[in-house]
Amino acid sequence: MSGRERILGRVRRALADVPADDPSYEQAVARDYLRAHGARSAAETVHLLAANLADYRALVHRCSEVELPSLIAGLLTDRGATSVLVPPGLDEGWLAATDVTRVADRADSTPHELDGVDSVVTACAVAIAETGTIVLDGAPDQGRRRITLVPDHHICVVRVPDQVVSGVPQALERLDPARPLTWISGPSATSDIELDRVEGVHGPRTLEVVLVG
């Protein structure tokens, strides 16, 4: 018997005495909570996102579509990056202004190889203003989850206002729960028992978010 079969067997036994007319999960759980807190315009929502991203120590930049390639090139140069990880579906124009060596997102890349890459550039699935969170879902322009967890520098492009929502409930409506979702609120950080903050423990030490609109 496989582990999967054992787990499913335990679930079936736990549900064996549940009445047939018992309310479903969707019916039993109240859904009357606020989807967003307060009324904001699209511009105000984007401003709130930028403020909360900065509060989490992410570096926030704003530019137009035309300015994006030169901005990304400048960020890579300022970082001193000599290599950049590129998801297979990333817009080629985004990196048109840089000659930094591009590294493909390959299934057989080892953690050691990924750790040797200086930066990674991705898009995102959605950004949440109230929590300062960007969400990746493994789409072609975002790549595998690990490429944004191992390199020390992540540049994430958010299209505004289309990809920005006010609250978590609105974000969940846009996301497929079957996809590999990565929720990012600022650069990777943790604290020890004395509350000394350490960054870069389980993800990039530096997160730069580019709001394009």
Automatic annotation (TrEMBL):
Protein name: Lactate utilization protein C
Lineage, highest ranks first: Bacteria, Bacillati, Actinomycetota, Actinomycetes, Kitasatosporales
InterPro entries membership: FTHF_cligase-like_sf (IPR024185), LUD_dom (IPR003741), NagB/RpiA_transferase-like (IPR037171)
LUD domain residues: 103-212
Gene3D superfamilies: NagB/RpiA/CoA transferase-like
Top-rank taxon: Bacteria
UniProt cross-references to Pfam families, sorted A to Z: LUD_dom
Organism: Streptomyces shenzhenensis
